[in-house]
Each structure stands twice: as structure tokens, then as C-alpha cells.
Amino acid sequence: MSTLKIKDLHVSIGEKEILKGINLTINTGEIHAIMGPNGNGKSTLLSVIMGHPKYTVTKGTIHIDDQNVLEMSVDERSKAGIFLGMQYPQEIPGVTTSDFLRAAVNAHQEKPVSLFKFVRNLEKNIADLKMDENLAHRYLNEGFSGGEKKRNEILQMKLLQPKFALLDEIDSGLDVDALKIVANAIGEMKSNDFACVMVSHYERLFELVPPSHVHVLVNGRIILSGGKEVVEKIDQEGYEWVKELGVEVL
Ligand code: ADP
Ligand code: MG
Ligand code: MG
Fold it and tell me: What secondary structure does DSSP assign to 118-163, as a single string?
């Protein structure tokens, strides 16, 4: 078992403090859901764990077991098993999806994987995700639909086999069928060696991939943690009740 442990994390962009003391412990084998109104720091939290340079950590720690994640480069974090499926995947003209994925896979290996093995694995996963096989030969995300970009993030996750997958609104832009396929792919990853943190606004994803832990992030803090009942409450009541707790929404 591995543990991703976040303690009293404070994060700023420029002068503005976005995260104001996040505490979160994620063990492999667990599935965590993070919900919360827009603009309250969910993407910031996932991006900081991955090491996005636009954010400054002003206080607090992130560890995987005894490894200090904040001292690692993005590359080292990826090798340590962290994966971020982005809310808005980048288009990279000039780099084919297949070349990008192969470079990413090889960066995790001592010896480069053989082209034959890589292609076989790629094709299997593309078929499982019911993606158009031509996407692999196109430039990364360029002209991909919203749903294709999201499936491409999941394809990358399947190839990299991370320990801690951070999935940021992976269900946005997916139609009902695509959502089932993606949920199924996440479900297949479930093991004692895998943890997932899913940010989403919608109950539907969490019905298909039931979380073991649910957190509500408001104004840079986790104001509530619980089980599936929290998802139902938000689905029925929105976030109005948050204000009654005296918490200021950003
Ligand atoms: P969420 O994912 O919960 O919708 P985000 O983490 O994306 O929220 O954003 C948190 C806050 O950070 C928002 O108020 C947003 O406006 C602010 N923010 C994001 N990027 C920047 C930036 N480059 N400069 C200043 N503020 C930013
Ligand atoms: Mg948002
Ligand atoms: Mg976001």
C-alpha cells in the first residue's frame, strides 16, 4: 500500500491565496471524489499535486510514503506514480498522439518498450475505449472533440498505470455512452495498488464509479468529508446549505 498525504497545504497564484489549508490522505485501494462550486480550488489542488509551475506552495507538505513530492519535478512525480487527467487537455500540434504516448510510457521504463509491444497495447486500449484508431496518428488533441480529448486522457492513464490518478472533470463533454466507457475503464484500474481522485459536478459519474470517500472543497478548504450520502445531498440541494455553515464561497 502507498499513501499520498497532503498536510495543511496553502497555495497562491500571484498574490491571491487559492488553497487555504488542505488536509487529505489518500491510500491506494481508495476512490476519492472532490466536489465543490466552480472557482473554489479543485483544479488548483490537482494541478499542484502534479507540479504545475503556475502555483506557489506557501505552506504545507505533500508526501507519497516517505518521498517529499514538493521537491520533485513534474517528471519525477509522474515516475513516482502520479497522473493528472486534465480538465482542459492541451493541443500539441506537431506531435502525434502515438509518439507522445510512447515517449510517456518509455519515460517510465528502464529500457524502452519495443514498438511492437507498445502498438499492441495501444491498439487494445484504443479498442477498449471505443476510440477512433486514426486519433493515434493525429497530432495530440488537435481538433479532437471534448469527449475525444477526455478519452485520450484515460488512454494515457491506461498506458501509464499510475498509482495515484487525479481526474479533473473527466466526465465533462462526454455523452452517456462515452461516460460509461470511461467509467468502466476507471473501474478496471481498481486494485490495492491504485487510487483515484475524481473531481466532478455530477452524481452520474459517481454512480458508475462509486467513491469510498467524498470531499466538498469550498473557498480553498475541505469543509466536509463523508461517504456517498454527500454526493446525494449535493445533487438534491446544490451548495446553498454550504452558506448556512457560514462558509464563504469564492
Ligand atoms: P475549480 O477547479 O474549483 O473550478 P480552480 O482551481 O480552477 O477552481 O480556480 C480557483 C481560483 O483560482 C479561481 O478563483 C480562479 O479564478 C483562480 N485562478 C486560476 N488561475 C488563475 C490565474 N492565472 N490568475 C489568477 N487567478 C487564477
Ligand atoms: Mg471549474
Ligand atoms: Mg476546475
Answer: HHHHHHHHHHHTT--GGGGGSEETTT--HHHHHHHHHHHHHHH--S
Residue 40 CB less than 6 A away from ligand 1: yes
Residue ranges of domains in the chain, CATH in brackets: 3-244 (3.40.50.300)
CB atoms within 10 A of CB 196: 26
Question: pTM of the full predicted structure?
Answer: 0.95
Tens of pLDDT, residues 63-99: 999 999 999 999 999 999 999 999 899 999 999 999 9
Q: Is the ipTM of this complex over 0.90?
A: yes
Q: Is the dihedral of CA 65, 67, 71, 74 positive or negative?
A: negative
Pocket of ligand 1 contains residue 200 by CB under 6 Å: no
Q: Ligand 3 centre and the CA of 35: distance in Å?
A: 10
Torsion over CA: 222, 12, 152, 77 (sign): negative
Residue reference for cell 481538433: 143
Q: Give residues with Cβ within 8 angstroms of 146, minimum separation 6.
A: 172, 173, 174
- Tell whether the model's pLDDT for residue 244 goes beyond 90: no
Task: Give Cβ neighbours of residue 22 (< 8 Å, ≥ 6 apart).
Answer: 6, 8, 9, 45, 60, 217, 220, 221, 222
Please give the number of the atom of ligand 1 that sits closest to the Cα of 41: 6
Nearest CA to ligand 1 atom 5: 41
- Those residues with Cβ within 8 angstroms of residue 92's Cβ, 6 or more apart along the chain or in another chain: 100, 139, 140, 141, 142
Return the residue whose CA atom lies nearest to atom 16 of ligand 1: 39
Residue to mutate (ligand 1; options 11, 15, 16; most atoms within 8 A of CB):
16
What is residue 35's DSSP assignment?
E
